[in-house]
UniProtKB/TrEMBL annotation:
The keyword Magnesium applies. It is an enzyme of class 3 (hydrolase). This is inositol-phosphate phosphatase. Keywords: Hydrolase, Magnesium, Metal-binding. Pfam families: Inositol_P. It catalyses: a myo-inositol phosphate + H2O = myo-inositol + phosphate. The lineage of its organism: Bacteria, Bacillati, Actinomycetota, Actinomycetes, Kitasatosporales.
Length: 281
């Protein structure tokens, strides 16, 4: 627990492992017991048939909200399900308190289908700056972490995104068409060109992890929800990657970004993807 004289950096030095433990507990208690065992009454729609929420999402977020605020008194939580219930709570990202950004089950559609392509995402930010992140793929028991200025790691091993292989098509995960406007669809058409191999994304958190591992080259996403992007953006940054919006500026978790935006293995690839998106817009 942080005291009144401790900085957030000092808190992380002492308690990053405690955060990890709480994320693992949330998954073990509220998520994995429901994986491949969901009853029909445990799955609901939010905005439509492609926007699902389950009891695992709700209960894991409640668990993490209580646990993380207890670890860091004075902090607040911006969680996907809480914001759905009260959109005004998203404004905490622009406030003065440290903010935990939580997506309890990123990749809910995959979770509902009984597939392993989902994860729990937690990031800690202050003043709009991402300071630490955790990406936990419970089905495969992989944990990726990042702290600003201290690198990115997967199960304790340092991650380096590297650069795309010369002569190989860029592997780019893009927003699913269900989540794009007509204008964004047109921008994404810029990726339908020689030298690029776009595909629809799965879990955003796992797409960011694939970039940090050098298994994918870039993303092209058309929505801003901080819980989908915060953990992964810091992971990619600390693995040596970069992110840019359509205006060529780094993505801001506080919003107001020109979309679509990209995260990529290196700055040159990020610039290339943004140029293609701008050409298609």
């Amino acid at each position: 627990m942080i005291d009144s004289t401790e900085t957030i950096e000092e808190f992380l030095a002492r308690h990053a492992s405690d955060v990890e433990e709480e994320i693992r507990r949330a998954a073990a208690t509220e998520i994995m017991p429901r994986w491949r065992r969901l009853a029909a009454h445990e799955v609901d729609q939010k905005a439509g048939p492609h926007d699902l929420v389950t009891d695992a999402d709700r209960k894991a977020e409640l668990y993490l909200t209580e646990a993380l605020v207890a670890l860091l008194p004075g902090s607040v939580v911006v969680g996907e399900e809480a914001v759905h219930a009260n959109p005004a709570s998203y404004e905490a990202l622009r406030g003065d308190a440290p903010v935990w950004i939580v997506d309890p089950v990123d990749g809910t559609r995959q979770f509902v289908r009984g597939e392993p392509g989902f994860c729990t995402l937690v990031a800690l930010a202050h003043g709009g700056t991402l300071l630490a992140s955790w990406t936990y793929a419970a089905a495969t028991d992989r944990l990726a972490t990042a702290q600003r200025g201290k690198g990115a790691h997967l199960d304790g091993e340092r991650l380096f995104a590297g650069v795309p292989e010369p002569g190989r098509d860029l592997r780019v995960a893009t927003s699913h068409p269900d989540y794009t406007t007509d204008e964004q669809k047109h921008a994404l058409l810029g990726l339908r060109t020689d030298g690029v191999a776009p595909r629809s994304c799965g879990s955003a958190g796992l797409e960011y992890l694939a970039i940090a591992q050098g298994e994918s080259d870039a993303t092209a996403f058309s929505w801003e929800a901080a819980w989908d992007h915060a953990a992964g953006l810091l992971l990619v940054e600390e693995a040596g990657g970069a992110h840019l919006t359509l205006e060529g500026e780094p993505f801001r978790i506080t919003g107001g970004n020109a979309l679509p935006f990209t995260a990529a293995r290196d700055a040159a690839t990020a610039r290339r993807v943004v140029a293609l998106l701008a050409g298609g817009a």
